[in-house]
Amino acid sequence: MPVSLTDGGDPTQAASMLSPVRPSLSPPAPAGVLVLADGAAIAVFAVIGIVSHTGGVSPTALAEDAVPLLAGWFAAAAVFRLYARRTTRALLSTWVVGIPLGVAVRAGALGRLDEPRQLAFLATTLALTLAFVVVARVALGAVSRA
């Protein structure tokens, strides 16, 4: 039902109907759902990377690429209490520590710690994982509001 201010309607209700919806990096979802959304976003990033470089996905490639990134992310998430605090600071702290940690573990496991191209991989991984996680969280927030 439309809100009319001329017939005694509530001005705060009218204002809230006109205000734009702001996407949230901490959507109102259970922590387990956020864990799954973040994990899926990072896994999708890894799968796209694997496919773009090799043309296919194998369990070995997933173990080499996705597992270290996910381990780094969730280790940092535990330290920064990402899923308890649900703040932008905790999210960014998790990202800025967890993703480099995962990249370092991956490089070490593959014997690539001394390769200069690992810096390019780190930069790409930092940028794209943040984008994927943000998109996943904004989409989750949109679904939660619907």
User: Biggest sheet, open or closed, and with what strands and sense?
Assistant: none
| CA-based shape | globular
Q: Write down the Rg.
A: 20 Å
Q: Please state the average pLDDT score.
A: 86
The total of helices stands at 6
Helix/strand/pairing category? mainly alpha
**What level of helicity do the residues show?**
over 70%
What count of domains describes the coordinates? 1
Strand content: under 5%
> How are helices and strands ordered from N to C?
HHHHHH
Query: What's the β-strand tally?
Result: 0
Head-to-tail CA distance between termini: 18 Å
Uncertain stretches: 14-19
Key features of this structure:
single chain, 0% strand, 75% helix, 146 residues, mainly alpha
Overview of this structure, please?
With 146 residues, the chain is mainly α. The protein has one domain. Helices cover 75% and strands 0% of the residues. The protein contains six helices and no strands. Helix 2 (31-54) packs antiparallel against helix 3, helix 2 (31-54) crosses helix 6 and helix 3 (59-80) runs antiparallel to helix 5 (88-109). The protein is globular and about 45 Å long. Residues 14-19 have low confidence and may be disordered.
How do the strands and helices of this protein lay out in sequence?
Blueprint: H1 11-18, H2 31-54, H3 59-80, H4 82-85, H5 88-109, H6 117-145
